[in-house]
Amino acid sequence: MSVRELVVLGTASQVPTRHRNHNGYLLRWDGEGILFDPGEGTQRQMLRAGVAAHDLNRICVTHFHGDHSLGLAGVVQRINLDKVPHPVTAHFPRSGQRFFDRLRYATAYRETVGVTEAPVDADGDLAVTAGYTLQARKLSHPVESYGYRLVEPDGLRMLPDRLAALGVRGPDVGRLQREGVLDDVTLDQVSEVRRGQRFAFVMDTRLCEGVHALAEDCDLLVIESTFLDEDAGLAAEHGHLTAGQAAAVARDAGVRHLVLTHFSQRYPDPEEFERQARDVGYAGELTVAYDLLRVPVPKRR
Predict the structure, then answer these.
(1) Residues catalogued as catalytic
(2) Which candidate, 6, 30, 66, 275, has a CA 20 to 30 Å from the CA of 52?
(3) SS (H, E, C) the chain
(4) pTM of the model
(5) CA separation for the pair 262, 249 (Å, rounded)
(6) Contact present, 120 and 42 (Cβ < 8 Å)
(7) Residue 182 confidence (pLDDT)
C-alpha cells in the first residue's frame, strides 16, 4: 500500500531546545523516502520516529547553515553502516560543495554505499521519475539556498456513470485504459484528468519569487516561520519569514495544507504562530509542527 506522509524529525531554528531538535524532515512518497535538511541529531530522531537508513532514496539540503546540515555526517555514515542496497542521491547548493565534502568525510568509516552527488546551481528539474519530478528554486538568504518542489504527473480518473451509459464494464474498462479506444468508445469520453499532487519544502528565506513559485497550488507546503509578525524587521535582516508572511504565501498560492516550522527559541507559545497565520486569512488545513509529528499528504482532489 502506498504511503504519502511527512515525518517531522526536528523543528528548531539555529539551536536545539529541550523540546525541539534541529531541523529534519522525511517525505514518504509511495516507495521512496526524501530526507530534507538533516540537522544535528537527525540520526537519533530517525530512530525515535521509526525511520531507517533503508528508507532513504534522496537527501535534499537547502543550504549549509548548521541547523540544516550538521546531521549529514551521521546520516551518510549510517547509510554506509547499514549497507543500503539501493542508490541514494544527495542534492545541495553547488556553492556549498566544500561543506558537503567535509560532512561526508567528517570522520573515518568504511564506505560501502556510493552516495551520488547531484549539486544544484540553477532553477529547474533535478530528477524525473515515474512517480514525480523534483524541482529546485533559488531562495533569498545570506548564504545560497534552494527550496524543493515535488510534482506528480497528472493521471486519468475513470467516470463510472459514463462507462455505464456507454456499456463499458468489467475487463473492458482495463482494455480501454490500456488501448485508448474500445469499439467506438474513446478514453476521453469516459475519463477526466486526475491532477497530480504537489509538495514543496521552503526553508530559510525572505519573501521572493522562488517562495511563491514553490508554493503554487501545493497540496502540502512545509515552510519556515522563524519569527512572529512583530519581529518582521529581524526576519528580513536575517533572511527569514514570519508566521503571517508564510501563511499569506500559502493563502495566495491555494495551498491545501500548510505546515509551519523552524521556530526561534525566543517564542514560548507555539499557538501564537497559528493565530497569526489565521489572521492573514489562510483558511486551509494548518499545522504548527512539533518533533516526531506525522502529517499525511491530503487525498487527491
Answers:
(1) 67
(2) 66
(3) CCCEEEEEEECECCCCCCCCCECEEEEEECCEEEEECCCCCHHHHHHHHCCCHHHCCEEECCCCCHHHHCCHHHHHHHHHHCCCCCCCEEECEHHHHHHHHHHHCCCCCCCCCCCEECCECCCEEEEECCCCEEEEEECCCCCCCEEEEEECCCEEEECHHHHHHCCCCCHHHHHHHHHCEECCEEHHHHEEEECCCEEEEECCCCCCHHHHHHHCCCCEEEEECCECHHHHHHHHHHCCCEHHHHHHHHHHHCCCEEEEECECCCCCCCHHHHHHHHHCCCCCEEEECCCCCEEECCCCC
(4) 0.93
(5) 16
(6) no
(7) 85
Check: CB of residue 222 under 8 Å from CB of residue 280.
no
Nearest to 149 by CA among 124, 116, 130, 131: 124
Q: 220 is written with which cell numbers? A: 502540502
- The count of residues in the chain is 301
Strands 58-60 vs 32-36: parallel, antiparallel or unpaired: parallel
Which three cell numbers, joined as nine digits, stand for 69? 546540515
For 53: left if phi > 0, alpha if psi spans -120 to 50, otherwise beta; the answer is alpha
Q: Assess contact for 154 and 121: CB atoms under 8 A.
A: no
How far apart CA 101 and CA 111 sit, in angstroms, is 14
Task: Tell whether the torsion through CA atoms of 232, 233, 235 and 241 is positive or negative.
Answer: positive
CA distance 107 to 76: 11
Residue 8's identity, in one-letter code, is V
Amino acid at 168: V
Local mean pLDDT, 10-residue blocks, the chain (301 residues): 90 94 97 97 98 98 98 98 97 98 97 95 97 98 98 90 88 87 86 92 98 98 98 97 98 98 93 97 98 96 81
Q: How many whole angstroms separate alpha carbon 243 and alpha carbon 245?
A: 6
